[in-house]
Amino acid sequence: MAAILKRSVLTRTNAAFLPNDQFLCRKKLFIDETRGLLQQDKEHLNNDVPSIDKLTSLMKPHLLRTKVLENIANVGPQMALGAWIRTMFHGYVVCRLPFWVPERFRSMLQSGIEMMGESLDIRYVSGLSWYILNIFGLQGFLFLLDGTREVEDMQFGSLPEEIPEMQTKMLMKQEKEQWKGMDYHWKLENIEEELLGKDSIK
Amino acid sequence: MELLVRFRNCTVVTDILEKVDRTLEFLSFVRVYSLRRPDLVLPLFRVLRDTQVETIEYWQAIELIALAAADVSNYRIFNWCCDKIKKRFGDNWRLHRLLGLFHEIRLDYRAAAAVYENSLVKHPSCPQLYKRQVAILKSLNSYEQAAVVLCDYLKNFMVDEESWCELVFIYLYLRKYEEAAFAASELIILNPSNWFYFLLFAEIQYNIGSYESLVTARKYCCYVCKMQKSCPRVFYDLLLVCWALGKFPQSSKDVNRRLLLFASKHLRQLYKNSSLLFAVEELLTHSSSRKLKYQTND
């Protein structure tokens, strides 16, 4: 659909370079009542690339089941990993910051350490906090080191951008109106005169 | 020369990381300039075989090595590259294209066409597979079929300038001038700043040969003359069109005469310091004598 819209806009923009017969041919091609490319009937819209309606797909029980199972399969290992990290890294201090930090940062720097009575100096960082800070803080740096994201982009970067159906319909309607109200003038009508000079041809 | 220097830079380095970097740089240079040099590409295979970097350049280099191996019928390296790509990315269209190209290099067009067709069933929105199919059909001299496939492709990828251009030349080969004119006008729409498309359209209109199409051809020639004053082909086309229009009684003789003079003047000017000036003079004398003949007939 995006290709039809792009072609239509380009054709309208550069129509002045086309002779009359070619222009009329294009106009018919785009806004013909029965077979025009900008007609919004369902058959025509689904002509090129088959798209799955998201709402309909959720209403189908087998598709919904697959999606839920996929999510559970993703969430399960993540929870297990989280629990393992918590048991592994909680309860000890790994470093001491060389500068003073406000009290509000205690939950960020000392998670996994619970002390009764007098609290620990805020500059000590717990193992669990250190792990979390490194994992999230160095994410960009890690992506730079191994080019995983780049390769994934290469795989999926060529997929066409999808425009929601409603928006496409609206854009097509607008485009059709633009075609109907278009004022055509051939730019090359008097090109001979322009080339030779206005006074030389009578 | 620059290519050889770059190649030497890859081979003289001893540090492995630097060697990989330079190799990838060299191979991306070969790819960007579409050079077909298996003699320089294949010796670098060992560098990439012993290392693996997860970057786009690395995988593109592997593809390039596979093509180079196919070029010299080195099945061992070609299979190694295909296996590596398959292991990393699974069964995808890039792999199918490689296999198809492998068959094409061995001139087994039927096998290549079968690979592309099967792949198109799985990946219907892949332009490269369509384009290879068209290339194969052209190689098999089946231009009619190539035009059909290309039209199918252009129904989905309407703004692909390169494919419209290909379609123009296929239609010209088939002597289908009306269809070629449509495709050429589509090129004008897609890129109106390229004067060659206007010239192409003018030449197709000239080939159609009716009075209306000749008038259109003259207008387009004039437009190109206005845009590009250093192209002899335009002035020659303008001469031909004006000369052809002279046969029609309804055409304006005055405009034709002035345009003929205009084109002759510019052609002479372009070839002023050339040894081919005598040929231009002969051509102009010939065309003017013919024109006179038609005028006397009228």
From TrEMBL, chain A:
InterPro entries according to UniProt: EMC3, EMC3/TMCO1
Keywords, sorted A to Z: Membrane, Transmembrane, Transmembrane helix
Domain of life: Eukaryota
GO CC annotations, alphabetized: EMC complex
GO BP terms, alphabetized: protein folding in endoplasmic reticulum
Topology with respect to the bilayer: Multi-pass membrane protein
Compartmental location: Membrane
Pfam families: EMC3_TMCO1
Family stated for the protein in its record: Belongs to the EMC3 family.
Protein name per UniProt: ER membrane protein complex subunit 3
Organism: Galdieria sulphuraria (Red alga)
Automatic annotation (TrEMBL), chain B:
Gene3D superfamilies documented for this protein: Tetratricopeptide repeat domain (1.25.40.10)
All copies of domain EMC2 TPR-like, residue ranges: 97-207
Gene Ontology CC terms: EMC complex
Lineage: superkingdom: Eukaryota
One GO molecular-function entry: transferase activity
UniProt keyword list: Endoplasmic reticulum, Membrane, Repeat, TPR repeat, Transferase
Cellular compartment(s): Endoplasmic reticulum membrane
Record's bilayer topology term: Peripheral membrane protein
Membership in a protein family: Belongs to the EMC2 family.
Stated role: Part of the endoplasmic reticulum membrane protein complex (EMC) that enables the energy-independent insertion into endoplasmic reticulum membranes of newly synthesized membrane proteins.
Known partners and oligomeric status: Component of the ER membrane protein complex (EMC).
Listed name of the protein: ER membrane protein complex subunit 2
Organism: Galdieria sulphuraria
